[in-house]
Amino acid sequence: MKTIGFTMIALGLAVAAVPAVAQGQTSFTLDTHTDGGGGYFTLEGESQRNPTLNVAPGEQITVTIRGTDDGVHNFCYPDTRSCSEYVQAEGETQTFTFTAPASGSGEYFCLPHRGAGMKGTLSAGGSTTNGGGSDGGNDTPGFAALGALVALAGLALVLRRK
To answer: Which domain holds residue 10?
Structure first.
């Protein structure tokens, strides 16, 4: 019985020690901006222009664009061969949902302002984008807890009196 207990302790500690897998975000709100003859996106509440959007590979992604000016903007991801509808006024929003690639990266952009620099990178690789989405960085919280429980059960078997 003690051998089984020691085995459970070792197995539980090994499972608990496995690093959690970071997931990318699945939704983003991008504010649109016009700057002279060009434009740019920012994540809601942030100032970095045209941020890289890190997403979970193969996940369904939802991007909401929100107009912050009277410019005409949309969101395109060419791997889907489609774009969102246009926002044309401050406060107007449009939502675009698509499936992220299984791996790698691609460019997202605003069709009318792509040539003027309103474009960024969407990366399917598992690390999170800093800020701006609703699902940032879900680790696998139950995995470490399961390993700890297996180790505790093994400890109980080892310490158990006959």
So the answer is: 2-20+141-159
